[in-house]
Amino acid sequence: MQSRTLAQPMIEVIMSRKGILYDVLLILGGSLLTALSAQIAIPLPFSPVPITGQTFAVLLVGTLLGSRRGALAMLAYLGEGLLGLPVFAGGRGGLAVFMGPTAGYLWGFVAAAFLVGSLAERGWDRRIWSAAAAMFFGNGVIYLFGLPWLSYFLPGSLSQVLAL
C-alpha cells in the first residue's frame, strides 16, 4: 500500500519558508491582491452583485498560498472590510456590506480559498486541466454560499435567482 504525499503550495516551491513573518506577509499580500481585484467591477443591471476580479483573486490566492494561508488571507480581507477599509467592490467597506446581498459570496471566499488550496496541495495545480477543475469547484463553493443569501434580497425564490 502506498501513501500519498501532499505537494507543497506553489509559493513554497518558489521561495523557501522563512517563519511567521513570512506567513503574515503572504497572508496580507493575498488579502491586498483580493482587495485590488475587487476594484475591477462590472455592474449588472439585473443583479445587485457585480462581476468582479476578486473571485479570480480568491482562487489564485488559494492555489498559490495553500489551504490554510489562503483561507487566512480571505479572513484577513473580510476583517479589513469589517473594520471599514474600502476593500470590497466599489470601494465599499464596513458592517453594512455584511448585511447586504453580497455577504454570502464574501463568506464563500474563505471556503473556496481553503478548497482550492487543499486541491493544490494534492497536486491539482500541476496540470492545466486539473487546475481549471479545482478553480471550477472553488467557484462553485462561492456560489453555494452566495446564491442562497442573495435570494433573500431579490424577489422570488432561490430557483428564480439561479435562473439569473
Explain how this protein is built:
The chain has 164 residues and is mainly alpha-helical. The chain has one domain: Arp2/3 complex 21 kDa subunit ARPC3. 65% of the residues lie in helices and 2% in strands. The chain has eight helices and two strands, in the order ααββαααααα. A two-stranded antiparallel ribbon has the order 1-2. Helix 3 packs across helix 4. The longest helix is centred in the last third of the chain and has 26 residues. The radius of gyration is 16 Å and the shape is globular. The N and C termini lie far apart (48 Å). 38% of the residues are buried. The model has no long low-confidence stretch (mean pLDDT 88).
The count of β-strands is: 2
Encode the helix/strand succession as letters. HHEEHHHHHH
Distance between the termini: 48 Å
Average predicted confidence as pLDDT: 88
Question: What distinguishing features does this structure have?
Answer:
164 residues; mainly alpha; Arp2/3 complex 21 kDa subunit ARPC3; two-stranded antiparallel ribbon
Which helices and strands, and how do they pair?
Layout: H1 10-14, H2 20-38, E1 41-42, E2 51-52, H3 54-65, H4 67-82, H5 95-98, H6 103-121, H7 128-153, H8 158-163
Antiparallel strand pairs: 1-2
Helix pairs in contact: 2-3, 2-4, 3-4, 3-6, 4-6, 6-7
Nutshell version of this structure?
The chain has 164 residues and is an all-alpha fold. The chain has helices at 10-14, 20-38, 54-65, 67-82, 95-98, 103-121, 128-153, 158-163, and strands at residues 41-42, 51-52.
